[in-house]
């Protein structure tokens, strides 16, 4: 039991330094705060799925992708996917693309919001 307490104290110290130590706890200033944020975010998604039903929830995700595709245009959407596919946990797709010398043509992204 003492090791569990010590481990929580270490995680809390890291959280207080701004590190995200709980998946979904981004923005929490302590271990406890991150745990509460993660739980609330998870519950929000579960509640929405219960309201819409599984099919409706999947449809909502699909519509979100379609909307983004319309905003960026087909070519821009493909470029965004290429960039996202290069991302890792410690580097964004843009950073990794630059490191690997992969050319991402962001001019294909439509910038108009309508």
Automatic annotation (TrEMBL):
Q: Which Pfam families has this protein been placed in? A: LEA_5
| Segments of this protein annotated with the region Disordered | 1-114
GO biological processes: response to abscisic acid
From start to end residue, where is composition biased (Basic and acidic residues)? 1-17, 32-52, 105-114
GO cellular component terms, alphabetically, are: cytosol
The entry sums up its family as follows: Belongs to the small hydrophilic plant seed protein family.
Query: Could you tell me what this protein is called?
Result: Uncharacterized protein
Per the UniProt record, the source organism is: Liquidambar formosana (Formosan gum)
């Amino acid at each position: 039991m003492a090791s569990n307490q010590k481990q929580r104290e270490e995680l809390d110290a890291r959280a207080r330094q701004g590190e995200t130590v709980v998946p979904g706890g981004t923005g929490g200033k302590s271990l406890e705060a991150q745990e509460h944020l993660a739980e609330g975010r998870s519950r929000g998604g579960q509640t929405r799925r219960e309201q819409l039903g599984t099919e409706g929830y999947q449809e909502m995700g699909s519509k979100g992708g379609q909307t983004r595709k319309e905003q960026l245009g087909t070519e821009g959407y493909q470029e965004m996917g290429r960039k996202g596919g290069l991302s890792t946990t410690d580097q964004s797709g843009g950073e990794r693309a630059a490191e690997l010398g992969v050319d991402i043509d962001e001019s294909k992204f439509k910038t108009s919001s309508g």
